[in-house]
Amino acid sequence: MSGCHHEKKIISTDQAPKALGPYSAGVSTGCMVFTAGQVGIDPATGKMVEGGVQAQARQALTNLKAILEAAGSGLDRVVKTTVFLEDMGEFGLMNEVYASFFTGEFPARSAVQVAALPAGAAVEIEAVALLPCDCGEC
After folding, report:
1. Mutual orientation of helices 52-71 and 91-101 as an angle, nearest 10°?
2. CATH code at 79?
3. Which residue from 51, 43, 137 is spatially nearest to 90, judged by alpha carbons?
4. What is residue 104's predicted lDDT score, i.e. its pLDDT?
5. I want to staple 33 with a disulfide (CB 3.0 to 4.6 A). Which of 10, 71, 109, 122 is the partner?
6. Could you list the residue range(s) of the whole structural domain that residue 84 is in?
7. CB–CB of 50/120 below 8 Å?
């Protein structure tokens, strides 16, 4: 088990917004990384991007990508995403942006409509991804 790390490691980066509460942007353990849900907050300004669900989805996925990369993973290693939408009627608009971030072998995905999201967001996206691992057990 020399190459595998089974302890919990907190993931953070200044390329994604700071947590809006008592949680971590990401946590890795073993050969997996789990992200917190990301909304369309621009880490440079700390404010929600303008332009509706597509602009917010683009920023949320950019934030997600930054967290995964800070953990040593990437969008190409994502195995599962969950998309939370304030309005399921905007699914198609979100999906256009989503498809530009994930190509080829798509991760499994769930999408649900919710009553409200943090910071007045229209969309929130979380992911589970693989980490590079040489432990021989994964």
Report:
1. 30
2. 3.30.1330.40
3. 51
4. 86
5. 71
6. 5-130
7. no
Task: Extract the tokens encoding 84.
Answer: 């939370």
CA distance 68 to 82: 15
Task: Provide the residue type at 62 as one letter.
Answer: T
Determine the residue type at 119: A
Looking at the 3D structure of the chain, how many domains does it have?
1
Residue at 137 is within a domain: no
Look at strands 78-85 and 108-113 and give their pairing. Answer: parallel
**Residue owning tokens 């971590």:** 24
Per-residue pLDDT of the chain (138 residues; tens, 9 = 90+): 345 557 899 999 999 998 878 999 999 998 999 999 999 999 999 999 999 999 999 999 999 999 999 999 999 999 999 999 999 999 999 999 999 999 889 999 999 999 999 999 999 999 999 998 776 665
C-alpha distances out from residue 6 to 10, 92, 104, Å = 13, 38, 30
CB neighbourhood size of 109 (10 A): 15
